[in-house]
Amino acid sequence: MERPVALLRRVDHEREGFALSLWREDWTDVYPGLFRYSIILTSKGRERVLFRTNTYEYAPTVPLGAEEVATRRLEDVERHLHSFPDSILEEEGDGMATGEPDITVDVLVIQGSPRPGGNCCILSEWAEEMARSLGKSVKVLFPADMTIRPCIGCYQCYNFGRCTFEDDMADVIGYLKSCRLLVVCSPVYTNTVPGGLKHLIDRCQAYHASRLLEGGPSGQKGIIISVAGRTGDEHFRCVVGVLKAFMMNLGIETLPSLLFGGMDRTRDISKQEGVRMQVEEAVMGAFSVHED
Questions:
Q1: Does residue 176 contact residue 250 with C-beta atoms inside 8 Å?
Q2: How far apart are CA 60 and CA 248, in angstroms?
Q3: For a Cys staple, 56 with which of 13, 80, 155, 186, CB 3.0–4.6 Å?
């Protein structure tokens, strides 16, 4: 969607052949009080973003705000270009991590348990095997074995749609963008998802920002599969809430969840009758929905 944009300042230097402008975009439909400021260099018919910042980058104790920082930066850039006009031709980076690789996969399975060979591992394998039997390409990710730094809430991803960190999240987002079906398997850890999976979820804020800036895929489906030691659906409330919010934030429609409690007594989910069939039917049904 197009958001309200205001030109705050424009500086023309006809002799040097460039113009600088400071723009403010209204993003209050995303977060209350969110405004993004961009410094645009126009030279020889080309426009280039030299700098971006937004109001949410600045914590309450920071003495400067986004508009003041952007204005000061504009003045610094103007002085530099006036003194060194040849530098206009130099390409500048945006200080963000590189984008995600070009990846194509039909089904992405995120195995959120850090425990190898556990029940989530078994459920993930069943989902993977079913998808492959349907002729779909599958990628299984194990957040506990990946290098994923926790989100620090800097909100710089809303400047260019990318995170400031360079780690394994670039691959994760690449798979998320391309998949038709997302399957997330998670145990219940202190009423929520394990830490590694939560890091992955939080870092997808950059993908959320990218979708707002550039758009993203549509029609994706998601299945939540979870296991708990205790019986009763109340033990899954937080896990399901977190994972549904995660998928909704990325425009992924959640299909009915598969929740298996009482694992403290059962121990091995492969010995529980009918569970594998439920997983297989859920994966098969997700692609039937796609084809309709």
A1: yes
A2: 29
A3: 155
Domain 107-291 class in CATH: alpha beta
Domain segments of the chain: what residues? 5-89, 107-291
- Residue 135's φ and ψ, nearest 5 degrees, are 85, 20
One digit per residue, pLDDT tens: the chain, 292 residues?
678 999 999 988 877 778 999 999 999 999 999 999 999 999 878 899 999 999 999 999 999 999 999 999 999 988 887 777 666 555 444 545 555 667 889 999 999 999 988 999 999 999 999 999 999 999 999 999 999 999 999 999 999 999 999 999 999 999 999 999 999 999 999 999 999 999 999 999 999 999 998 899 999 999 999 999 888 888 899 999 999 999 999 999 999 999 999 888 888 999 889 999 999 999 999 998 545 4
